[in-house]
Fold each of these.
Amino acid sequence: MVPDIFIPFRPEDRQDRPGYFFILSGPSGVGKNTLLSIVLQGMSGVYYMPSATTRSMRAGESQLNPYVFMSTNEFEQMIEHGQFLEWKKIHTNDYYGTHLPSIQFAIEKGFDIITDMDVLGCEDAVVAFSDHICTIFITPPSMDELSQRLHGRDSDVKSIQTRLDRVELEMKHQDQYDFVLVNDDLEESARRLRKIIEEVRSSKEFKGKRQMMR
Ligand code: ADP
Ligand code: 5GP
C-alpha cells in the first residue's frame, strides 16, 4: 500500500500560494518521462509525482522511477479506500492511477508537483483541481518518429502495438491543453518545457485555457 504522503517535500520549497499541479500528456513513447527527467534535474522546488501502476517494470525502470509499481490486488485495495484522484485501465489490462492525498497535500501546502497522465485521467484531474492545474500536451514530430521511439525503448511487438493503437485517442484531445509542445530536438524541447513551467510558477495565479473559457 502506498503510504499517505510519500514525496519528501522540503519546507524551503513551499510557495507563497497554493501549489501548482502540472500534468504532461501525450502518446506513450513521445518522450514525457525523458523530458521530465532532464527538466527536473535543472530545476529545484518542483517534485515529480509518480503514478501507481500494475504494469511490469521495463529495463532501466525501478520503484518510483517512473512509477510506484504494485500488484493488481494492492491497486484494487487503494481504489476501495478512495486513494486515487483518478485511475484508468490503459493499454492491455494495466491500471494507472494518481495518488489523491499527495496531490491534495501539495496544493494545500504550496508545493509544485508534476506528473504524467493519459488524456482521460487529465480530464478528471482538471474537474477536481481546475484552479491549480497547468496542462501540457507533448506531441511527436511525426508518427514515424513516434513508432521509432517505441521500438527503440521496447522489443515487445504486442506492447508497442497496444501503445500505437491509443495514439489517435490521445492526439484528438490536444486542443484542450494549456500548452502543446512538439518533442523534436530533445535539448531544445526540454528548454521550452522548462520555460513554460518557470513562467507559470512565477505567476501568483495561472489563467489557463479552461479558466479563460469559463
Ligand atoms: P513516454 O514517457 O512519453 O512514454 P519516454 O520518455 O519513455 O516516453 O521516451 C520513449 C523513447 O523515446 C525513449 O527511448 C527515449 O530515449 C526516446 N526519446 C524521448 N525524447 C526523444 C527525442 N526528443 N528525440 C529522440 N528520442 C527521444
Ligand atoms: P506506459 O508508461 O505504460 O508506456 O504508458 C502509460 C500511459 O499511461 C501513458 O499514456 C501515460 O500518460 C499514462 N499514465 C501514466 N500515469 C497515469 C495515471 O496516473 N493516470 C492515468 N490516467 N494515466 C496515466
Amino acid sequence: MSYKLGEVLLSREVIAERVKEIAAEIAKDSEKGKPLVIVGILTGASFFLTDLVRELPEDMDVRVDFMSVASYGDSTVTSGVVRIFHDLKTNIEGKNVIVVEDIIDSGLTLSHLLTLLKGRHPASLKVCVLLDKKERRKTEVKVDYCGFSIPDEFVVGYGLDCAGMWRHLKDIKGVIEEK
Ligand code: IMP
Ligand code: MG
C-alpha cells in the first residue's frame, strides 16, 4: 500500500480564520486574573496550539505546556490506554486547564488523558480540538471548543501525519491509498 496526497479539505486561510474565532471564544470564557494553562498534545497539536495562543489577548495570563502520550495497541486500533512519554512541567492543581488536541476520533485517547489529568485536581479542565470525526466516537468526550467537524476520512497537514509524513503542510488535505 502506498499513499498519495489528495485534495485540500481545509485551506490555510479557512483554518486561520477559525483559529481566530476559537481564540476569541476562549478569551471570552476565561476567568479574569487567573492563569490559564494550555496543554498541547505532542506532536500533532503543536502546530494548532502555537497559532491559537498567539491569537489570545496580550493581557491574558496564558501558560503553555506539552505532553506526549501514545495509546497502547497497534497502529490502526486505539486501545485508549495512555502511556506518557513526556509529562507536564506545570503543576495544574487549582488551575484552569485547556487540553489542545489536533483531532478527536474514537475519543479513547482523550478520555483516558482527561481521567489522568482530573486526578491532579485542576480548577477546571476543558477540551479544544481542531478537528472532530464525530461518527467515529466510541466513548463520550465533552468537546468545549471545536474547529471543524469532518467526515470519516483520513487527513494530513497542519500537524496531522500519516506514518510521520506530511505534518508540515500548510493546508489540511485528504490521503489517497494506492494498492
Ligand atoms: P482517538 O480519538 O483515541 O481515536 O485518537 C485520536 C488520534 O488519532 C489523534 O491524536 C491522531 O493522532 C490520530 N488520528 C485520527 N484520525 C486521524 C487523521 O485523519 N489523520 C491523522 N491522524 C489521525
Ligand atoms: Mg495525536
Amino acid sequence: MAEIVIVESAADAGGLVADEIVRLVRTRPDAVLGLATGSTPLPVYDALRSRLSGVDVSRVRGFALDEYVGIDPRHLESYRNVIFREVVEPLGLDPARVRVPDGSLEGIAHAGDDYEAALADAGGVDLQILGIGTDGHIGFNEPGSSFASLTRVKTLTAQTRADNARFFDHPDDVPMHCITQGLGTILRAKHLVLLAFGAAKAEAVAGAVEGPVTASLPGSAIQLHPHVTVVADEAAASQLRFADYYRYTWAHKPEWREL
Ligand code: PGA
C-alpha cells in the first residue's frame, strides 16, 4: 500500500519531499529525478533551493513527465521552459543532464521511443514527483490510458485544457495534444511521490488511493507500485475513507524508516 502523509500545508509537503530528495542525492550523486510541472510540485522545488545549497548536484539527472505537442519552443509555458525556469536554473542542475519529451512536430513520430531509450540508458528514474489532475490523470495520461503505456502522444481532455487555461492568454491557446510518459513508464520509477493540494483534488486522490484500480482513473495505477508516497493537505485528503488510519500510521512510523 502507498504511504499516505496528510500535512497541514503545501509548504510542509514541499519540505518533506525535498528532504527525501536531498537524502537521495547525497547517497546517489547521479540520481535520476522524475520532474513534474504544474502548480503542485512548486513547493518541493522551493524547499529544495535552500536544502541543496552545499550539496553537489552537478551529476544529478532529470526527466520531465510530459510536454505539449506543437507548442512554440519559446513559449513561456512550454514544459521545457517551465522545467528550466522552475527547476534547472534555481537548483543549479546541469541543463545537459535534464530532458523533456520533444513535442516539436518534426520529430514527433519517434519522440516517444527516443525518450524511452534515454530513460533506459539512464537506468530509470529513482524518484518520480507526480501531481494529479482533477480527472485523475498522472503525467498527461488521461482516463482510459493503458497501464502498459509508454511515452506517446495523447489528446488532452477538455477538462485538462480548461484546468491549464490559467497558464495561457486564451483557453483556445492550450494545445490539444501532448507527449507524455505512459503509465507503464511511470510505474518503472523506483519511488513514486504523488502530491495533491486543495479540495478540487479530493475526489481524484480518493480514487487513486482507495478506488478500484482502473484505467478510468489513471492515478489508481499507483496501487500497482511497491513504493509510493502520497502527500496531501487536509482538503485534498478530505475524501479518503481511511484517513484516520493514515494519520495513525504516520504518527507511529518507526524512525528508521525513510519515506
Ligand atoms: P496542477 O496539475 O499541479 O497544476 O494542479 C496537476 C496535473 O495536472 O498533473
Amino acid sequence: MASVDILLGLQWGDEGKGKVVDFLAPKYNVVARFQGGPNAGHTLEFDGHKHVLHQIPSGIFHEGILNVIGNGVVLDPITFKREIDGLAPFDLDLKRHLVISNKTQMIIPTHRMLDKAYELAKGDKKIGSTLRGIGPTYQDKAARKGLRIGDINEPDFDERYNQLRDFHLQILERYNFEAELDEEEKLFFEAIDIVREFDILSTEYLINEALIEGQSVLAEGAQGSLLDIDFGSYPFVTSSNTIAAGACTGLGVAPRRIGEVYGIFKAYCTRVGSGPFPTELFGDKGEELRKLGNEFGATTGRPRRCGWLDLPALNYAAMLNGVTQLFMMKADVLADMDEINICNGYKIGEKETNELPLYLDTDNLGLMFDTFSGWENDKVKSFENLPESLDKYVKYIEEHTKTPISLISVGPDRTQTLLKENF
Ligand code: GDP
Ligand code: IMO
Ligand code: MG
C-alpha cells in the first residue's frame, strides 16, 4: 500500500509550501489540502507566471494529478469561484482534476463579518487575523452548527443557511456591526452554483482507495506549526491543527498511512499578524531582510515581520511533526549578508534551555546566537557543491536538528530548486 507524505510549514507560515508542492507534485498521483482555508496564500512561479492559490491545492498545474480539498479545510465559495475564474486562461480541466470533500466546512459571508467584529472588539490585543472568516467557521464546526459543502445539495440547504446567518446577525448586532449582506449573498449563491459543478465526495474513501491501489498522496499543509491551535503561540494562532496529525483528521487517513513528513522552513524567520516572535529584527536590519526577501503577505499584502532562524522553535516543530526531511527555503535572500545569525538556545533568567515556554514573549527570555557569513549566490549551482559558508550553514542546522536537509530553494521560480541526489 502506498502512503501519504506530508509537506508542512515549521514556522509561522509562508515558508514556501506552494512552490515546493508544485515542484514535487509530478511524483504524486494525488495532492490534498487538509486544513486552513483562504487565510493561506501559496505562491507558485513558473514559465514567467506567478500564481497565488488560496484554497485550491498546489498540484493543480500538473496534468494527471487529482487535487483534493479535504474535510479539514474551511472553504469560502466566493473565494473559490474567484480562484476558478482566475485559472480560466490556463486551460486546466479543473472539474476533472479537483474534487471537494462533502464534509468540508463552509465559510458564509457572516463568518467573515464576525471575524472582523471579534478582531475590532479585541482592540490592541487583536490576533491580526486575515479576516477571511477562519476562526468563526471553525468555531461553528466545533459548536456543531456549521454547514458543510455536501449540504449544498440537500433539500433544506437554504433554510439551514438562513438559520445560521440569522444566528450570526444576532451576534453582529451585539457588536454594533453593520452587516450589509445583499451584494455578499448574491455573490455567495452565484458561487454555490459553481461549487455544485464540481464532484463533492466522501474523499476519505477516495484517498484510502487510491492508497490501496498504490497511488501516492501528498498532503499540503497551510499556515505553519507555530500557528497550530494547540502548540502554536496561543492565542496568536490560527484555528486548526496545522501539524502532521491534522493531515490524519483533515483527510481521514490513519496515522500508520503516513510516510515522509517534509518540514519546510525559511533560512530565517517571518511572521504576519500579531504575537510573539523572539528572534524578530527591528529597524534597518529587519527592513533589509523584508526588502531582500520581498516579505509581503500573499493573501493580505501586509509587510511580514522578519528575524533570524530560531532553532529551539524549529526543533519544537520538527518534534511535533515527526519531520523526516527538512527543506530550506530562500537561501538566496541571506547570500549577500555580511553577518547572519542563528538562535541556538534560549535563556530564561539564568537557565539555558531549548524548550519553548508557555508564553514566548515572557519578559526574561534571552537568546543565544551563533554567527555565520554570507556566500556568493551565483556559485550556488548544485546541492553537492555548495559554497563553503552555505555548506557550513546547512550542516549546522542538520547537526542541531538531527534531521537531513534534502532540498534548498534559491529563488521563487520552480527551476530555482536544488534537490539532494537520490531524493
Ligand atoms: P507559502 O504560504 O508557504 O506557500 O509561501 P508564500 O507563497 O506565502 O510565501 C513565500 C514567498 O517566497 C513567495 O513570494 C514565493 O514566491 C517566494 N519564494 C519561495 N521560495 C523562494 C526562494 O527560495 N527564494 C526567494 N527569493 N523567494 C522564494
Ligand atoms: P500560508 O498557508 C502566514 C496568521 C494571520 C494571523 C493568524 C490568525 O500562506 O502559510 P487567521 O486568519 O487564520 O484567523 O489568522 O495566523 N496566518 C498566516 N500567516 N501564512 C498563512 O498561511 C497564514 N494564515 C494565517 O496573519 O496572525
Ligand atoms: Mg503564504
